[in-house]
Write a structure and sequence with these properties.
The structure is a single chain. With 430 residues, this protein is mainly alpha-helical. The chain has a 3-stranded antiparallel beta sheet. Strand 1 and strand 2 form a beta hairpin. Helix 3 runs antiparallel to helix 4 and helix 5 runs antiparallel to helix 6. The longest helix has 17 residues. The protein is elongated, with a radius of gyration of 23 Å.
Length: 430
């Protein structure tokens, strides 16, 4: 669920679908919008680049601890991502079965950052490592098989159980946004499994991270924050733990504290694009646009084919009124993900700011067809039509946006301004 921040009466900037996710991936996050473009010639447009974040149709972003997406408004979907693997805190050596087959040679086993393996030569730990690799590669079937083998080899270590919880959450169709699934039986069942793992080791940091994520999805913010704070106490040098806590703080209205955690996560894991994307989103929410641009630019250099990163960087440039720099980034996002309505809508907004009116209208029209429920696309279309002088069509577009969300102040403000424009153009005005 993207977190929105108004800029002026009617213009908003929203980050790519899922800027914050309940995992190590980023999901849709809202950003401080570019200055409102309301003038006497046309109502304000609305930019809607989308982290994580299904295209996040005008909803706040997901939290940073689920699939690759981000949000802050209950119920918004976080498509295209799964919870990222968390780094495991040291625990007692697991029991293993003599002669058990291993997924790789004993020599050279190296713990994967954010994984559950501890990097030992134990057959159990080798299975964990294989599960971590499969999980990171989105091969959930293989990950589940390896974690199940690890669990059979050592029933007293919680790592394999946490691995299976991650796989189950990633395999579910449940959105991983804040309060996306209150009282959901599947989420409550996974929470019970995490609690069972904590009975095996009540000092296992990854279990507290997963507990916090699940509680966020269930909508229990206080308990989630307590679990995530406990995780960072146990593993203060784990980037994923810091990231998960940062996103939770952001989603619960504590952006300054969140920024501290997300900055630390990026310091601990400097070459992780998702950490940088989360950090960039937090900077934007704080109004620190230059810092956000630096973080998104670094992420784009690390992952040049990530549509969300380019969309977020384009949104940041728009927030700084650097339209000519925003255009190629937004165009790249659309080229990489042509069916994502939020990227297309943001591109139409950039065209509008660049004075390319016909392109803005055609692009916004495409966005409304890709996602008829994306309010920002209708607002952008209405604004471009109003600028062109087609006030009747502009009014239809604004009314469509208002029907989608009667509480949204943007179409209301634009309709009021449109009425003023009509009165000013009327020959019999008084």
């Amino acid at each position: 669920m993207p977190i929105y921040e108004k800029h002026g009466l009617t213009a908003w900037l929203v980050l790519s679908a899922g800027s914050f996710a309940l995992g190590a991936c980023a999901a849709a996050g809202a950003v401080p919008p570019a200055p409102a473009s309301t003038t006497t010639s046309a109502p304000a447009a609305s930019a809607t680049p989308t982290t994580t974040p299904p295209p996040v149709s005008d909803a706040p972003p997901p939290l940073a601890s689920a699939p690759k997406c981000a949000g802050a408004s209950a119920g918004s979907a976080c498509p295209e991502t799964r919870p990222a693997a968390k780094a495991a805190a040291p625990a007692a050596a697991p029991e293993s079965s003599p002669g058990a087959t291993t997924p790789q040679a004993v020599a050279g086993n190296k713990a994967i950052p954010g994984g559950l393996s501890r990097g030992s030569a134990e057959p159990y730990d080798l299975e964990l490592a294989a599960g971590d690799r499969a999980y990171q590669n989105d091969d959930l079937t293989a990950a589940k098989a390896h974690y199940e083998k690890a669990q059979k080899l050592s029933s007293k270590d919680p790592a394999a159980q946490i691995g299976l919880v991650r796989v189950a959450l990633a395999s579910s169709d449940i959105p991983t946004d804040f309060a996306a699934a209150p009282q959901n039986p599947a989420m409550l069942g996974l929470l019970r499994k995490v609690d069972a793992a904590l009975k095996l080791d009540d000092g296992y940091a990854p279990a507290f991270v997963e507990r916090g994520r699940l509680l966020l999805i269930l909508g229990n913010a206080p308990e989630a924050l307590r679990a995530l704070d406990r995780a960072q106490q146990l593993a203060p040098e784990d980037a994923e733990t810091q990231s998960a806590l940062g996103v939770a703080l952001l989603a619960t209205g504590k952006p300054a504290e969140a920024l501290t955690r997300l900055r630390r996560a990026a310091e601990l894991d400097p070459d992780n694009a998702e950490r940088l994307t989360n950090l960039g989103t937090a900077h934007l929410i704080q109004g620190e646009v230059p810092e956000a641009i630096r973080a998104f630019s670094r992420a784009a250099a690390l992952t040049p084919n990530d549509a969300k990163v380019h969309g977020d960087l384009g949104a940041a440039y728009l927030a700084q009124n650097q339209t000519q720099k925003a255009l190629p980034e937004l165009d790249r996002a659309v080229a990489l993900a042509p069916d994502r309505a939020t990227y297309v809508s943001n591109l139409s907004y950039a065209y509008f700011l660049a004075g390319q009116l016909e392109l803005s209208i055609s692009t916004a029209t495409k966005a409304t067809k890709l996602d008829p429920k994306l309010g920002s696309a209708w607002i952008n279309l209405g604004t471009a039509l109003a600028k062109k002088g087609d006030l009747a069509a502009a009014e239809r577009a604004y009314r469509r946006a208002l029907a989608l969300d009667p509480s949204d102040p943007r179409p209301k403000a634009n309709l009021a301004e449109l009425a003023e424009m009509k009165r000013a153009a009327s020959p019999d005005k008084k």
